[in-house]
């Protein structure tokens, strides 16, 4: 139990420092000092700082894509309508990020860099995210729920709207005086997203 707690403290310390100082500006010693642990413990769990970085990002993206995949499985098994599953997937992704605001911000910032790790993420997790949302839209189209099958630009816009509040929380707070980590913000933001999504779905025009 103590070892697990120490590992979680290392992760928490690393995320906080990476957000403030950047990955390059943070040393393993900095992380150990903030986590109140020995440098050797970080080496034991993650090998080095790069190993810690990779685990932080992959763990985040594993969970991120998993909450979408659950809804895709429901839609494909026809347990629920594709439209309902798409909205639920969007809501779940927003909540997932809101519960991990510092990690979400760090991961989204890191993905903007052109590194070997990011290229690997593009071809795995980020490609999977695109595929999952495309599958939901195609299922909705085959069900007759969607008027017109949205193109790639729709998916790019959706990706941007899903991540923007967590990539730029300071901008939202300082310029719009809104609190992106507040539940009220999430409710209103999701409502706007749902209206935008609904343009493509027949169900939304009938009400």
Task: Walk me through what this model shows.
The chain is mainly alpha-helical. It has 2 domains: 1-47, Arc Repressor Mutant, subunit A, CATH 1.10.10.60; 57-198, Tetracycline Repressor, domain 2, CATH 1.10.357. The protein has 11 helices and no strands. It has helices at 2-21, 28-35, 39-46, 49-76, 82-98, 101-110, 116-142, 152-167, 169-176, 183-198, 202-206. The mean pLDDT is 92.
> Structurally, how many domains make up the residues?
2
CATH class of the largest domain: Mainly Alpha
Describe the main β-sheet briefly.
none
CATH superfamily of the largest domain: Tetracycline Repressor, domain 2
N-to-C SSE string, H for helix and E for strand: HHHHHHHHHHH
Strand residues, percent: under 5%
Low-confidence stretches: none
How many H/I helical runs?
11
Oligomer: single chain
Q: How confident is the prediction overall: mean pLDDT? A: 92
Name the overall outline. Answer: elongated
Total strand count, please?
A: 0
Helix fraction, binned, reads over 70%
State the end-to-end CA separation.
53 Å
CATH architecture of the largest domain: Orthogonal Bundle
CATH fold node name of the largest domain: Tetracycline Repressor, domain 2
Structural class: mainly alpha
Instruction: Determine Rg (CA atoms, Å).
Output: 19 Å
């Amino acid at each position: 139990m103590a070892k697990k707690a120490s590992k979680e403290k290392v992760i928490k310390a690393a995320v906080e420092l990476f957000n403030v100082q950047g990955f390059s500006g943070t040393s393993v010693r900095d992380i150990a000092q903030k986590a109140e642990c020995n440098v050797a413990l970080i080496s034991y769990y993650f090998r080095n700082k790069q190993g810690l970085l990779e685990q932080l990002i992959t763990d985040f993206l594993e969970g991120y894509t998993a909450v979408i995949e659950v809804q895709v499985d429901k839609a494909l098994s026809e347990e629920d309508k594709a439209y309902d599953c798409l909205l639920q997937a969007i809501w779940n992704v927003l909540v997932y990020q809101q519960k991990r605001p510092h990690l979400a911000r760090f991961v989204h910032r890191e993905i903007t860099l052109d590194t070997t790790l990011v290229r690997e993420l593009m071809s795995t997790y980020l490609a999977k995210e695109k595929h999952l949302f495309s599958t939901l839209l195609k299922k909705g189209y085959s069900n007759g729920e969607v008027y017109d099958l949205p193109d790639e630009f729709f998916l790019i816009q959706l990706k941007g709207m899903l991540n923007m509040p967590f990539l730029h929380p300071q901008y939202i707070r300082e310029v719009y005086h809104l609190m992106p980590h507040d539940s009220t913000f999430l409710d209103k933001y999701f409502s706007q997203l749902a209206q935008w999504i609904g343009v493509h779905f027949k169900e939304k025009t009938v009400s």
